[in-house]
Specification:
The protein is α+β, with helices and mostly antiparallel strands and about 700 residues long. The chain folds into three domains: about 85-385, Catalase HpII,  Chain A, domain 1; about 465-525, Catalase, four-helical domain (Hemocyanin, N-terminal domain, Up-down Bundle), CATH 1.20.1370.20; about 545-690, Rossmann fold. Helix 3 crosses helix 11, helix 4 (about 200-210) packs parallel to helix 9 (about 455-465) and helix 11 packs antiparallel against helix 12 (about 505-515). It has helices at about 60-70, 165-175, 190-195, 200-210, 255-265, 270-280, 335-340, 360-375, 455-465, 470-485, 490-500, 505-515, 555-570, 620-630, 640-650, 665-675, 680-690; strands at about 85-95, 110-120, 135-145, 145-155, 225, 230, 240-245, 285-295, 300, 305, 320-330, 355, 545-550, 575-580, 585, 590, 595, 605-610, 635-640, 660. The strands form four sheets. Strands 1, 2, 3, 4, 5, 6, 7, 8, 11 and 12 form a ten-stranded antiparallel beta sheet that branches. It has a six-stranded parallel beta sheet with strand order 17-14-13-18-19-20, sandwiched between helices. The protein has a two-stranded antiparallel ribbon with strand order 9-10. It has 17 helices and 20 strands. About 25% of the residues lie in helices and about 15% in strands. It is an enzyme of class 1 (oxidoreductase). Pfam families: Catalase, Catalase-rel, Catalase_C. One of its GO terms (molecular function) is metal ion binding.
């Protein structure tokens, strides 16, 4: 059932959020309606008039304040990553990173509050969650040494190598300026025109066209820092690193039809899944991993240029070493105050972590701060509660728009002799952030190193690392996206790039477009990386997964109760589907109905089980739901005569992934949980492909 909500206009109760939101900064302090100045009001339904039928009066300060604030209650949305959802949590370090970095938040058993925002890149705030796109994975660590922002994506590489082209790739991907369509998608001419003319984008396009572009949920999505960073340990020794977030729930995605259904039936699919899971006691969990590489003079590793953001380092070459666990277990209290106003910045670093000369990263160091000045109305956005560091701040910065602090003293400059020479600069031993003295030489030039010219070998690596069903999905995605392009010249240019990736891929996409496949030479010497495939090697946890049980008032409600207790003990959520709402009753049994056949769609369930006692149940909406689940390779089960409902719906009960039993017992529950842990029954899809 929906979680119990706090009344909106009462003073917030003491909670963990007080660690982030100072009591003096909280709204709704008191039970009487007031103006913004604290003056109590007797009426907010009628404006002040000259008589009951007369004109409204200018002196109605409450009317003017109320309307003015309403007129200005929206701020400019982010240019990119506008649609997002977030959660609070904690990061606990394992202590295994102490040899490579002196960053305090990575010390053993250190717990650090965090705020994490997930997002899509291209769409507006009103777009859908499940569009094919890159997902932002931005983590704000409120460390004792200051805020550290690890601002990454769910893909380890990017479209471009130099940040000067970022406005171009975003302009190309955004809706066309003449019609403002299509929204939140890349299936149009300008995007593919750009990437076909910038072949450095080929590797990232492969990721975006794979299932990685349509994740199942935020909890089943990997995260990457994208860039190479420099770590510094207590002895001043340096190493290069790539950051990884590994989801405890495994890496899983939607299938394309599911993504399309969700965009229409529930555009809030991902944010709802996260919020409901947290409310149900199933937090999102990720482990932070480091790929450590030597800080060599040429900043390359195994022939891979570590400053090229279109390249990854295969995990088989550099193991991802786990150094801590992130747990997201608390939803925001207010979307605008927290999720919308949070300001991430790649230059928010702590001692022990530095940036490198990656030209995309270098541009981001400017861009993130610059955009907040417009979006949040001035330089004091760090004073917003969600952005406030938990470390002591004494910055000598003054005034500006939205200054909410009352500064003391007369000398906001250094050195000074008026304010007792305070604040004083710190030394490195006192925790100051001191940049490593790295020598920089070279002519002023607009150019890339020669190593940046390899645009295809890692795209081939990614393709050859996928399973058969994943390759089919990539082919279908390219065919769909390019099929939406009107210019054949653009389609032909993309096919030319795909020919450099793999002949099979190119021929299949060309066939779908009705065009000849161009000849090309792919890099055949790559070694596949199993870590790039999402197909799991073993079943994972089912925490946060949603299991639907089809039932009627004549169903085995006792069996449903047993199943509920079993799956909820694993952190999963059970929802009863029935022809009508209310509560199902039979004898002493009671089961609340969470969804009716009218309000449910297949996309919200990871598995559906039909209860005993439902034989003879016929409903076209249920039939469609079951057929979609079957087509999407999800687990379907039944006990007792519930199997007849599946047969009547045209479901092949002999197909892979059908869990059947005469009654609810441990073997049935165990088999069901194990099957859901695999996420999909891919054998079913392969069977259809072979047929």
């Amino acid at each position: 059932m929906p979680p119990k909500r706090q009344r909106e206009q009462t003073e917030p109760a003491n909670s963990e959020s007080d660690a982030v939101l100072d009591r003096s900064a909280q709204a709704q302090r008191g039970n009487h309606l007031t103006t913004a100045q604290g003056v109590r009001l007797p009426d907010t339904d009628h404006s002040l008039k000259a008589g009951s039928r007369g004109p409204s009066l200018m002196e109605d300060f409450h009317l003017r304040e109320k309307i003015t604030h309403f007129d200005h209650e929206r701020i400019p949305e982010r240019v990119v990553h506008a649609r997002g959802a977030a959660a609070h949590g904690t990061f606990r370090a394992y202590g295994t990173a102490s040899s490579v970095t002196k960053a305090g938040f990575l010390e053993k058993d250190r717990e650090t509050p965090v705020f994490v925002r997930f997002s899509t890149v291209l769409g507006s705030r009103g777009s859908a969650d499940t569009v094919r796109d890159v997902r932002g994975f931005a983590v704000k660590f409120y460390t004792a040494e200051g805020n550290f922002d690890l601002v990454g994506n769910n893909m380890p590489v990017f479209f471009i190598q130099d940040g000067i082209k970022f406005p171009d790739v975003i302009h190309a991907g955004k809706p066309h300026p003449d019609r403002e369509i299509p929204q939140a998608q890349t299936a149009h001419d300008t995007f593919w025109d750009f990437v076909s003319l910038h072949t450095e984008a080929t590797h990232h396009v492969m990721w975006a066209m794979s299932d990685r572009g349509i994740p199942r949920s935020y909890r089943t999505m990997e995260g990457f820092g994208v860039h190479t960073f420099r770590l510094v340990n207590a002895e001043g020794e340096t190493s290069l690193v790539k950051f990884h977030w590994k989801p405890v729930a495994g890496v899983h995605s939607l299938v394309w039809e599911e993504a399309q259904i969700a965009a229409g039936a529930d555009p809030d699919f991902h944010r709802r899944d996260m919020a409901d899971g947290i409310d149900a006691g199933a937090p999102l969990e990720f482990e932070l991993g480091l790929q450590i590489m030597p800080d060599s003079e040429d900043e390359t590793f195994e022939g891979i240029d570590l400053l090229d953001p279109t390249k990854l380092v295969p995990e088989e070459l550099a193991e991802v070493q786990l150094v801590g666990k992130l747990t997201l277990d608390r939803n925001p209290t207010n979307y605008f105050a927290e999720t919308e106003q949070v300001a991430f910045h790649t230059a928010n670093l702590v001692p022990g972590i530095e940036v490198t000369d990656d030209p995309l990263m270098q541009a981001r160091l400017f861009s993130y701060l610059d955009t907040q000045l417009t979006r949040l109305g001035g330089p004091n956005f760090t004073q917003l509660p969600i952005n406030c560091p938990h470390a002591a701040v004494n910055d000598n910065l003054r005034d500006g728009m939205h200054q909410t602090l009352v500064h003391h003293g007369q000398a906001p400059y250094l050195p000074n002799s008026v304010d007792d020479a305070l604040p004083t600069p710190a030394t490195e031993s006192e925790g100051a952030y001191v940049h490593r003295p790295i020598e920089v030489t070279g002519p002023k030039i607009r150019a890339n190193p020669v190593s940046f010219d390899d645009h295809f070998s890692q795209a081939t690596l990614f393709w050859k690392s996928l399973s058969g069903i994943e390759k089919v999905h990539v082919i279908e995605a390219f065919t769909f996206e390019l099929g939406k392009c009107f210019a054949q010249t653009i389609q032909e240019r993309v096919l030319g790039s795909l020919a450099r990736v793999d002949a099979e891929l190119c021929a299949a996409v060309a066939g779908g477009l009705g065009l000849p496949a161009p000849e090309g030479t792919a890099d055949a010497d790559v070694t596949p990386s199993p870590a790039l495939s999402q197909i799991p090697a073993k079943p994972g946890p089912i925490a946060g997964r949603v299991i639907g049980v089809v039932a009627t008032s004549g169903a085995d409600l006792g069996g449903i109760g047993k199943l509920r207790r079993t799956v909820e003990a694993k952190g999963a959520i059970l929802r009863v589907l029935a022809p009508a709402g209310g509560t199902l009753k039979r004898g002493r049994g009671r089961q609340p109905v969470a969804r009716t056949f009218l309000t449910a769609r297949s996309i919200e369930f990871d598995a559906v089980v039909v209860a005993d006692g439902t034989a003879g149940l016929h409903d076209i909406k249920l039939t469609v739901l079951l057929q979609e689940l079957f087509r999407h390779c999800k687990v379907i089960g039944a006990w007792g005569d519930g199997a007849r409902v599946l047969t009547d719906a045209g479901i092949d009960v002999e197909a892979p992934g059908l869990v059947l039993a005469d009654e609810i017992a441990k073997p049935f529950s165990t088999e069901l949980i194990d099957a859901i842990g695999w996420h999909r029954v891919w054998e079913r899809a392969e069977q259809v492909m072979n047929d």
